[in-house]
Design goal:
Radius of gyration of chain B: 16 Å
Helix content of chain A: 10-25%
Largest sheet of chain A: 9 strands, mixed
Oligomer: heterodimer
Number of helices of chain A: 5
Strand content of chain B: 25-35%
Number of helices of chain B: 2
Radius of gyration of chain A: 16 Å
Structural class of chain B: alpha+beta
Shape of chain A: globular
Chain lengths: ~230, ~80
């Protein structure tokens, strides 16, 4: 089993993501430079957090056209597992692999804190190791995490159970008071129709060791391994 | 030839930057300003003899890159010399 983490100019969470993947899975995780056009041998590709191309124009807008993205899109279209974390989520949206848009946070502040997430769908390739309706803790750190989608898009997300994580209170209720950035319906993470592409704003790679405040991120990596082992 | 492209949020999208700027304008005492919409400005200098083709190209670029069609719209104007 091989994990790959794409590095764009300006990505800065790649090291943490590689470390977390290796630590939890015990499998190999390798960096993929953004100019790489061949993803052969990888079972799961992760687009990490950071500020690719300085967030110039729009977060993820320029990374979307990096040479590696054609291979990532092919990989996803062929059923490969792809995860976009924070800036990675933004890039997946710009690339059309996930719907909607991520706008500036409601309060116009960069928010860096631990949040509670309700696992809305614990049957996906990325969450099958979490209990149904689990409430997990992970840190967020972003300025543009305000998830927006039109009403038709929201209806489709709900219909096909594509909402994976929601910001919630400690009991798991998606209370607007616990919405850090104004995201529509507290949405923090979604998957595509096929169920093989996940985009999420929280940093699971920073929640894999309890010394950092939470190791709830381990479940996500274990879920991916379970999916790949099938 | 030069083309000015202005990218702004679609009317039904919340524009927190615009609202914040409007609030600041009120703090300065200009209460008559009712609304502010913020956007981005790009100027593309194009090497071409055909203004129509050039504008078509700028339109394509605006659709593919400069604006996010989910939440933004754009306006193209041939720049004054």
């Amino acid at each position: 089993m091989k994990f790959g983490v794409v590095i764009f100019p300006g990505s800065n969470c790649d090291r943490d993501t590689l470390n977390a993947l290796e630590l939890v899975s015990g499998e190999s995780a390798a960096p993929i430079w953004h100019k790489e056009k061949d993803l052969k041998g990888f079972d799961c590709v992760v687009l990490p957090g950071g500020f690719s191309y300085g967030d110039y124009l729009r977060a993820g807008a320029i990374a979307r056209f990096s040479p590696v993205m054609e291979a990532v899109i092919d990989f996803a279209n062929n059923g490969g597992l792809v995860i976009g974390i924070c800036n990675g989520f933004q890039i997946l949206m710009e690339a059309g692999l996930l719907p909607g848009a991520l706008m500036v946070n409601r309060d116009l502040l960069f928010i860096s804190k631990m949040v509670n997430l309700h696992v809305d769908n614990s049957e996906s390739a990325f969450t099958n190791q979490y209990h149904e309706s689990a409430v997990i803790k992970m840190p967020i750190a972003h300025y543009q995490g305000n998830f927006h989608i039109d009403s038709e898009g929201l209806r489709k997300l709900k219909e096909n159970k594509r909402i994976i994580f929601r910001y919630s209170d400690p009991a798991g209720d998606p209370d607007p008071e616990f919405n850090p950035n104004g995201s529509l319906e507290n949405i923090a993470g979604i998957i595509n129709d096929q169920g093989n592409v996940l985009g999420m704003m929280p940093h699971f790679e920073r929640a894999c060791e309890s010394i950092l405040g939470s190791d709830d991120g381990r479940g996500l990596i274990k879920s991916v391994m379970e999916s790949l082992n099938k | 030839m030069k083309f000015d492209v202005i990218v702004s949020y679609k009317p039904d999208i919340l524009d927190p930057e615009g609202k914040t700027i409007c609030h600041s304008i009120h703090t300065l005492g200009y209460e008559e300003v009712k609304e502010v919409h913020s956007g981005k400005f790009f100027q593309l200098e194009v090497d071409s003899d055909d203004p129509q083709k050039a504008e078509e190209m700028v339109r394509e670029i605006s659709k593919k890159l400069l604006a996010n069609p989910n939440i933004e719209r754009f306006k193209i104007k041939k720049a004054e010399k």
